[in-house]
TrEMBL record:
SUPFAM superfamilies per the UniProt record, alphabetical: F-box domain
InterPro entries recorded: F-box-like_dom_sf (IPR036047), F-box_dom (IPR001810)
One Pfam family, short name: F-box
Protein known as: F-box domain-containing protein
UniProt domain F-box: residue ranges: 1-48
Entry superkingdom: Eukaryota
């Protein structure tokens, strides 16, 4: 194997999940359509979120429709745009970063 693009998609997703959100977004579209596709997978974005991220969002004070998020990336973007204060008085962003 001489080309990273020959790796299976789940391997590429694992590799991307070990980088940062900025790296994933910034490089994925520049490398190939395959990287762009993999960069949007839940496997990649789940690594950037707390394990209980859906529970955190459901406990928010705002009225968020239960099925508004189509992906883990959507949850990540939402939590970055609208930080939430948790019970222990820390922001959820402290757990993301």
């Amino acid at each position: 194997m001489t080309n990273i693009l020959e790796l299976p998609e789940d391997c590429l997703a694992q590799i991307l999940s070990m980088t940062s959100p900025i790296d994933v977004v910034g490089s994925s579209a520049l490398v190939s359509k395959l990287f762009l596709s993999v960069s949007n997978s839940d496997i990649v974005w789940a690594g950037f979120l707390p394990a209980d991220c859906e529970d955190i969002v459901s406990r928010s004070s705002g009225s968020i429709p239960p099925n508004i998020f189509g992906s883990k990336k959507d949850i990540f973007v939402y939590l970055c745009r609208f930080p939430m204060l948790l019970e222990n008085n820390t922001e959820v962003l402290d757990y993301i970063e």
